[in-house]
């Protein structure tokens, strides 16, 4: 343990915080000298162990219940020896959150075994509760503006919970297991909540493109999010989805391979396994690892493919895992029975074909086995990535070994040199094992070299660095990560400048800003409360309010007829100033071009159930809100491609809004209102513009520099400020109303 002693530089104020269910150190007991720890087992602990050079704090559960009086000492040791901080959980919480929900529902479902899931609302409640505990711990330890990297399926609600508590944080999430096809994912009773939890992150990472693709698809289908390239757009935020296959801690194996202890182990193996071909399996005893499939295939091999006089031994290490869970106990029984049957049928007085070890083995022996085995057989029925196969490749210094690898592991996407197997094809696997044992030396070396290159290039350190680098770039490029630009943090100066100005102008977009989006445009009618707010704003002294919209004059007039509010409609084509009944045309346009584009739009609508075409005065729109989310998006892209040909010489532009494609006259935009009002704006006037989409950018761009321009969401924008979500806009306007009321004059 002494080599992992941390340098004192890492304190709870480190910029990076890693949050995972288990800490890399497990509490094993309390001796007279205080608590004792051992290194935690499993893929995640192995993967992140390579990160030790970085400066970060690791927050998680120490693997056991810690009585109150022992806590200060546990905390001290964890902090000083491992740079860790504990999260305390009770036995009941662990049982429900960890065993029943994380490992009893999420794990099997995400590994495509829905029949193994057992959803209970009580466990779900505990999952929520424990995720809240982790979010609270991250909140406590993370410094302002720091980065929190949340790991794995146990903590999928944390990103959202943490964002609510700490909007200043940069939040990244990595899923170490597969993200299943949306058809399987949607079986999950709490599918929506889990997705909402995840996309509270700024960046979500997966091992393979397939998992990322499934995740995007689930977001689109279940939440109705939009996907722009590798980004999910949701509630005005952009969540980057990224693919990073995890690697191993290569230095660890390089060191071990030169260790005399490993050489001694090798000698031992050479002696005891002389004359045998050795096939090695190292798996946690988990049903996802396909142990039964492997054993059955090995039985077929012994029956149909083993040559006379040949002695092939399968050394299968099955590391105990989740031993208290009934499904795992049952699996162990089944496997031991299978091993017994095979050995009973195929053993001789001098040879036992299956050597089954239900135990964890020390690193030196593991490395020696990796170095020694002729074949490593990794055939999970599903596996997020799988590190064992990479470790085998790293230990094959002479390149003599052969790897059999399941096509259902994430690693199959990266390790091209492996002989791929389908664990469900028993005969096929047996035949591939035969092929592997017979592979000519030259081909073995060639294949192993290709795998070795990947493993050397793509270490766990590299994985973490590249993921954090993508996250950093995303944090920098998304305005959402600059707290100084959040309007929520600038309310006081805004209100001050509002109160002190001799005259004030409020230019506020309607859909998505004043009012949240609704299922259909008609449902976004202002509520009584919103109508009241608009009225209050319109009545403020020395204040002129304009509501801007792409809607028709009729609709807006009907909604706000009784108020002295300015209306700017059809994206800036028409304006009605406060107190006036007249509509003024801000630009003269021709709609001749519409005849040319309408047939294309209508053709695409006819081919897309749920899509419809809306013709307005100076624009036409292709809406797909009610279409299948993925097919709708597909058809919208297709339409944009076709339109680019039709529109080549027309004075129009295409914009993509929320579930709509809009073709607009180039001369019509909301910036026309800014140009129209420019002459009336005087020295020291207060100017506030609020908007949520691309069409508001023309307005922001044309307002004077001192204007308070605010865009909702984290998109890059001409606006000086941003609001995190739509409700901020009416809330801000309420602050403005209150700021002039005598009781609140002291500020907010
Ligand atoms: C999850 C995902 C993903 C195993 N037995 C012994 C031992 N091990 C070590 C191996 C390897 C690790 O445990 C197992 O890692 P895997 O990746 O194979 O599997 P999971 O534990 O299921 O990990 C997986 C991983 O997270 C990382 O993202 O790859 O897909 O399921 O390092 O060597 N180590 C020692 N003795 C053993 O007996 N010392």
Describe the structure.
It is a single chain. The chain has 748 residues and is α/β, with parallel strands linked by helices. Helix content is 41%, strand content 19%. It has 25 helices and 29 strands. The strands form five sheets. A nine-stranded mixed sheet has the order 5-4-1-6-7-8-11-10-9, with helices on both faces. Helix 14 links the parallel strand 15 and strand 16 (402-406). Helix 4 crosses helix 5 (158-165). The longest helix is centred in the N-terminal third of the chain and has 21 residues, at 121-141. The radius of gyration is 31 Å and the shape is elongated. Mean pLDDT is 90; it is low at 1-13 and 744-748. GDP-alpha-D-glucose (GDG) is lined by residues 41-44, 46-47, 176-177, 246, 282, 284, 317, 319, 360-361, 363, 366, 383-388, 391.
Secondary structure elements and their pairing?
Elements: E1 16-22, E2 25-31, E3 34-39, H1 43-49, E4 56-61, H2 71-82, E5 84-86, H3 91-110, H4 121-141, E6 147-151, H5 158-165, E7 170-174, H6 182-185, H7 191-198, E8 203-206, H8 209-223, E9 226-228, E10 231-234, E11 237-243, H9 250-257, H10 260-272, E12 277-284, H11 291-304, E13 312-319, H12 326-346, E14 354-357, H13 363-372, E15 375-378, H14 388-395, E16 402-406, E17 419-421, H15 426-438, H16 441-457, H17 460-477, H18 491-500, E18 504-509, H19 528-538, E19 543-548, H20 553-560, E20 566-569, E21 574-576, E22 584-585, H21 592-606, E23 612-615, E24 619-623, H22 629-646, E25 652-657, E26 660-665, H23 671-677, E27 686-691, H24 694-702, E28 708-712, E29 721-723, H25 728-739
Parallel strand pairs: 1-4, 1-6, 4-5, 6-7, 7-8, 8-11, 12-13, 12-15, 13-14, 15-16, 16-17, 18-19, 18-27, 19-20, 27-28, 28-29
Antiparallel strand pairs: 2-3, 9-10, 10-11, 20-21, 21-22, 23-24, 24-26, 25-26
Helix pairs in contact: 3-4, 4-5, 7-8, 10-13, 11-12, 11-15, 13-14, 14-16, 18-25, 19-25, 21-22, 23-24
GDP-alpha-D-glucose is lined by residues 41-44, 46-47, 176-177, 246, 282, 284, 317, 319, 360-361, 363, 366, 383-388, 391.
């Amino acid at each position: 343990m002494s080599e992992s002693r941390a340098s004192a530089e890492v304190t709870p104020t480190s910029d990076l915080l890693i949050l995972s269910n288990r800490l890399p150190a497990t509490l094993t007991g309390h001796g007279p000298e205080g608590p004792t720890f051992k290194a935690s087992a499993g893929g995640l602990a192995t993967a992140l162990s390579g990160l030790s050079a970085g400066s970060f704090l690791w927050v998680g559960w120490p693997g056991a219940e810690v009585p109150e009086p022992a806590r200060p000492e546990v905390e001290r040791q964890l902090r000083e020896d491992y740079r860790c901080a504990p999260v305390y959980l009770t036995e009941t919480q662990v049982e429900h959150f960890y065993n029943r929900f994380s490992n009893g529902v999420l794990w099997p479902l995400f590994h495509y075994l829905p029949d193994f899931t057992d959803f209970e609302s009580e466990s779900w409640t505990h999952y929520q509760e424990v995720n809240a505990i982790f979010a609270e711990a991250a909140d406590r330890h993370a410094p302002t503006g720091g980065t929190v990297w949340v790991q794995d399926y146990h903590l999928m609600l944390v990103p959202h919970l943490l964002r609510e508590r700490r909007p200043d944080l940069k939040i990244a999430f990595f899923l170490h297991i597969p993200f299943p096809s949306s058809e399987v994912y949607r079986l999950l009773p709490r599918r929506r909540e889990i997705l909402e939890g995840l996309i509270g992150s700024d960046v979500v990472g997966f091992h393979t493109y397939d998992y990322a693709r499934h995740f995007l698809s689930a977001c689109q289908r279940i939440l109705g999010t939009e996907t722009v390239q590798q980004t999910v757009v949701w509630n005005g935020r952009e969540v980057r989805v990224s693919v990073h296959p995890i690697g191993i801690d290569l230095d660890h194996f390089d060191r071990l391979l030169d260790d005399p202890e490993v050489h001694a182990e090798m000698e031992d193996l050479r002696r005891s396994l002389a004359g045998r071909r050795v096939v090695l399996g190292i798996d946690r005893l988990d049903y996802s690892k396909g142990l039964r499939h492997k054993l059955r295939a090995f039985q077929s091999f012994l029956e149909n493919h083993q040559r006379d006089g040949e002695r092939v031994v399968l050394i299968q290490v099955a590391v105990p895992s989740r031993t208290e869970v009934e499904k795992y106990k049952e699996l162990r029984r089944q496997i031991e029975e299978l091993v017994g049957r095979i050995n009973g049928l195929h053993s001789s007085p001098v040879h036992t074909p299956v050597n089954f070890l239900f135990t964890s083995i020390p690193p030196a022996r593991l490395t020696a086995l990796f170095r020694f085995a002729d074949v490593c057989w990794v055939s999970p029925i599903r596996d997020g990535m799988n590190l064992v196969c990479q470790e085998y490749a790293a230990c094959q210094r002479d390149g003599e070994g052969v790897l059999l690898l399941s096509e259902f592991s994430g690693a199959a996407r990266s390790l091209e040199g492996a002989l791929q197997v389908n664990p469900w094809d028993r005969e096929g696997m047996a035949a591939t094992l035969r092929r592997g044992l017979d592979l000519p030396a030259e081909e073995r070396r060639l294949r192993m070299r290709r795998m070795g290159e990947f493993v050397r290039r793509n270490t766990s350190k590299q994985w973490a660095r590249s993921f954090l680098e993508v996250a950093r770039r995303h944090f920098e490029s998304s305005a959402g990560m600059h707290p100084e630009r959040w309007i929520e943090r600038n309310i006081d100066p805004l209100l001050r400048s509002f109160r002190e100005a001799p005259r004030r102008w409020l230019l506020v977009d309607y859909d998505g800003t004043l009012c949240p989006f609704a299922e259909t445009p008609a449902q976004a009618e202002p509520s009584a409360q919103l109508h009241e707010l608009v009225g209050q704003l319109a009545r403020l002294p020395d204040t002129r309010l304009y509501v801007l919209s792409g809607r028709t004059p009729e609709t807006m007039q009907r909604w706000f007829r009784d108020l002295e509010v300015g209306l700017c409609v059809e994206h800036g084509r028409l304006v009605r100033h406060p107190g006036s009944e007249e509509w003024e045309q801000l630009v003269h346009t021709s709609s001749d071009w519409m005849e040319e584009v309408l047939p294309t739009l209508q053709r695409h609508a006819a081919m897309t159930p749920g899509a419809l075409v809306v013709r307005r005065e100076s624009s036409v729109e292709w809406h797909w809100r009610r279409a299948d989310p993925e097919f709708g998006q597909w058809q919208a892209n297709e339409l944009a491609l076709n339109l680019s040909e039709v529109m080549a010489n027309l004075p129009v532009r295409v914009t993509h809004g929320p579930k709509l494609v809009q073709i607009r006259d180039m001369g019509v935009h909301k910036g026309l209102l800014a140009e129209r009002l420019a002459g009336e704006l005087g020295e020291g006037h207060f100017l506030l513009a609020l908007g949520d989409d691309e069409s508001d950018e023309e307005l922001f761009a044309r307002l004077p520099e001192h204007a308070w321009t605010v865009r909702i969401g984290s998109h890059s924008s001409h606006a000086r400020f941003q609001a995190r979500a739509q409700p901020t806009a009416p809330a801000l306007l309420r602050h403005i109303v209150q700021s002039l009321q005598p009781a609140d004059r002291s500020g907010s």
